[in-house]
Amino acid sequence: MPTIVEGFESGTAVVPRTGNWTRDNTQRFAGTWSLKSAAVVETGGSSSCTMSVPAGATTVTFRVKVSTEGSDSNPFDPFVFLTGATERYRKAGEVAWHQPGTYALDGATQVTFRYDRDTSAGSGSNAVWVDNVTFIIPDTVSPSVPGNLRVTAKTSTSASVAWDASTDNVSVSGYGVYLDGAKQGSDQAGLTYDFPTLTPGVHTVEVDAVDGDGNRSAKASVAVVLDETPPTVPGNLRATAVGLTQVSVAWDVSTDDNGVAGYGVWLDGVRQGADGAALGRTLSGLLPGRTFLVQVDAADAAGNRSAKASLTVNTVADVEPPAVPGNLRVTASGPYMFAIEWDPAADNVGVTGYGVYFGGGKLGDDQAGTSYMLDDLVPAGTYQVAVDAADSSGNRSALAQLTHVTPVDAPPAAPPNLRVTALSYTSWTVEWDPSSDDVQVVGYDVAVDGQPVATSTTDRILSRSGLPDDTASVIRVWAVDHIGQRTTTPAELVVRTLNDFDPTTPMLTTTAGEDSLTVAWTASEDDFQVVGYEVIVDQQTVHTTPGVDFTVDGLLTRHHVVTGLTPGVPYDVRVAAVDSIGQRSADNTQQRATLGLPYVPVSTPVYRLAMWAGNVLDQHLVTWTVESAEGWPSSAPVSPVSAARGGLDGGLDGAGRYGPRRIVLKGTAVAETNLAMLAAKQRLLRAIHPRNRAWLRVADARMTRQVKVRLDGQIRVTDQGPLAFGWELPLKVSDPRRYATVPVSAEAVIGALPGEASATIELSGTYPSIPARLRLYGPIREWTITHRETGTVMRGMPGDASRLPADPRYSFTIDLASRQVLAHVPPEVWPGPRPGRSALAHLPAWFHLIPGTNTITLTGSPVTGESGTPRLVIEAFDAWS
User: Fold this and answer.
1) Alpha-carbon distance 1 to 61, whole Å?
2) Helix (H, G, I), strand (E, B), or coil: what is residue 835?
3) Is there a contact between 46 and 56 (Cβ–Cβ < 8 Å)?
4) Which of 75, 155, 532, 880 lies in the 20 to 30 Å Cα band around 254?
5) 857: nearest Cα among 789, 799, 782
6) Closest to 35 in 3D by CA, of 56, 68, 64, 15
7) CA quadruple 74, 78, 80, 86: dihedral positive or negative?
């Protein structure tokens, strides 16, 4: 029987319970755990555990150990077991593990284990343990009927049977075997049974299955026939009716000691279906005019068969041909084929097939179908075809005939729905639908503006790009068939690219300098997109920009300075806006002359300090002659560095300290009048303020160079007559380098981070250490700037200390001459540049440029959440000693 056992082995109850008894592993009947009563105080009381009875359970057993005060005769502190409210067992004292009994539940829905204690002193452990509480559920389900009961062997006096196993909701315990209703011994476990002694005749064997609760299945049954005597041969086998396609036969009854079970019929040695009890059979579907052998035997229930009775019969001969196939017709036709069909012909017996005749001969064997395809023909050909019907006796009908002319092979139709599917200012795409042909379209020929672009292509799409705007193209498409025929009139379509209007003309402002023109302009607009601007001087493009230039002085928006021009010369200046397809705005050329020099050179070199110049005839008709230029041609001696700075000043230091130079210009000035001489003295004294610095520019026949100077003493003037005076101009130069007047610049732009980019600057000066200005734009952090030729490095601080966002208003400027680092931020954050040395790592890096090639490389890490192209802009002036 099915059981549910609560052994308390798991923290999860198998059977739901309530109460204050708990799991315990100090005492157990089996396993590791049991259930122990809760402690009860000595002043009296009880503890209990109540379990819910599982559905269907009828009885319960359990194991219990008692260690309490008392005995069976004096149960002071007893253990009590109840089913429902009925007490079933009571025990006190020291009692080892035991099973009190098996208790009928009698419909109770719960059982209770209880430990009662009186007010006297206890003894033993004062506890009760319960284990293996078992609820028994009766089984009322019968096993399944044994399957496939069968006779496996038999003789005239014995038989053996077998069967397949039954199934049960619990288990099958055995099988009962019955012979002619009588059970044969006890139930057995095996699936076979032998009957060693049986009497001839028919016996009934039955088998049922039984489970452990005595539930028995229904019985399986099989008949066992013990008979070796066949029936007698059927007598008087005879034909009772003969036709074209069938015969009917009959015979007399056979006899058998146990009865005839049926008769078998054979036609030409082939059995005709199952045995039947009737004494006659009609055999149909025969061929007319044929001879057939008919045989009949008898069979009994034991499977014994008699010898066969035989009869030869002849069906009636068929001499009637089928009717002529009707409605012979063409159902499909092309230049190289046509298909025919006809209606089925009639026959007194049945049509067995149709013959198809073509070109004077029969096409293969007869066929059962009523259609035929004729191919491999030629266009416009005349063909005759015929069809007849045949029956099984070889009778053939007269011919049904048909004459057909195949059509000519026409060229394909023009491709339909030639259309534009995509159109822009510089490109178009056209498509078309499949063309039709009486045979097959194999491709398409395509021409654009009269020029073939595709031959027999299977594509039905064509695209062209890189075209001028507002330009028409004529597309023609022909379909091509399997023999190369093309559409007579092609599909044609005129496509015009969109008209992209030129960008609007920028408003141009030009400011003149002596050797430069500063050009500014307004933004242009375009119906497509303005991608940049070209600054054009005298028909030569001198600068291209997207509109915003990144420079060492910050962002320049639609602004450019054209340098290296000749003073006092007119120039044609134009700014052209360029859109994405290369169209330029209308001409806005202005003619603007550079400012003329306020003097005329009289010898070389020409010295220029603000508005004063030497070796010239100035605009006041005063001739200024420089007789000596002490300190200009030579360099100051090297002053070595006393100790490395370790990068604490921003990672910048020179390769050596160079002392200042002193320049003293001396000469004479000659005027035309005494008043002009006095005015010339005043202009010389005002050339440079004692507290200011100014550029001293020296232009010789080869180049122009400059230094930044301040006064180094008083300007001396000595009269040399009423119209002349001598003069001495003492100057001090803190930086001994002589610089070019026009800078050299380059830019390194990183496409994606992490990554790197390099810029190259070529310097032709002779000074061994040439400073530069650098400006770094984001987004970038933890950046490194390396000078490849010297190996010097500047490195940003780790993390966000060196971080620059994508906003170009944030940047770092590094001046290698002053070793100054500035951090630029938007004005709403801080009104001006702030010191930025804290953004550089404290590493020794004496960074400078050198004569010749300078390769500066920028690397860095990305800034989370920022996108853009970080860049380093470098600007340097060639320097000479």
Assistant:
1) 14
2) strand
3) no
4) 155
5) 789
6) 64
7) positive
Secondary structure class of 465 (helix, strand, coil): coil
As a whole number of angstroms, the distance between CA 255 and CA 832 comes to 133
Taking the C-alpha atoms of residue 394 and residue 363, their distance in angstroms, rounded to an integer, is: 17
* Pairwise CA distance, residues 474 & 494, whole Å: 5
* pLDDT digits 0-9 by tens, 612-624: 999 999 999 999 9
CB count in 10 Å sphere of residue 160: 16
Q: Identify the weakest region by mean pLDDT among 143-147, 207-211, 500-504, 560-564.
A: 500-504
**What backbone phi and psi angles, to 5 degrees, belong to 683?**
-65, -40
Rounded to 10 degrees, what is the CA torsion of 101, 105, 109, 115?
Answer: -30
For residues 222 and 763, give the distance between their C-alpha atoms in angstroms, rounded to a whole number.
117
Q: Give residue 500's pLDDT.
A: 77
DSSP codes of every residue in 600-648: EE-SSSEEEETTEEESEEETTS-EEEEEEEETSSSPPPEE--SS--TTT
Residue owning tokens 């011919």: 399
What is residue 719's three-state secondary structure?
strand
638-639 and 657-658 beta bridge pairing? antiparallel
Q: Which candidate, 168, 158, 230, 232, places its Cα nearest to that of 195?
A: 158
Beta-ladder partners of 191: none
pLDDT tens track for 343-389 = 999 999 899 999 999 988 999 999 999 999 999 999 999 999 999 99
Q: Which residues contact 637 (CB under 8 A, 6 or more apart)?
A: 659
Q: Do the beta carbons of residue 835 and residue 815 sit within 8 Å?
A: no
Q: How many whole angstroms separate alpha carbon 207 and alpha carbon 61?
A: 36
Q: In degrees rounded to 5, what are phi and psi of residue 808?
A: -70, -5
The sign of the CA dihedral 618, 622, 624, 625 is: positive
User: At residue 451, what are phi and psi to the nearest 5 degrees?
Assistant: -105, 125
pTM attached to this predicted model: 0.49
For residue 107, CA distances in Å to 1, 101, 828 come to 18, 18, 90
Instruction: Give the Cα separation of 531 and 518 in Å (integer).
Output: 22
Q: Which two tokens stand for residue 767?
A: 């000074």
- Cα 628 from Cα 439, distance rounded (Å): 104
Give the separation between CA 386 and CA 325, rounded to whole angstroms: 10
Contact indicator for 689, 650 with CB cutoff of 8 Å: no
How far apart CA 281 and CA 142 sit, in angstroms, is: 48
Cα dihedral sign, 520-522-523-524 = negative
Nearest in space to 317 (alpha carbons), one of 389, 239, 238, 391: 391
Distance CA 166, CA 172 (A): 7
Alpha-carbon span 734 to 736, nearest angstrom: 6
In single-letter form, the type of residue at position 201 comes to G
**Residue 504 near residue 585, CB atoms below 8 Å:** yes
Residue 622 token pair: 């005063």
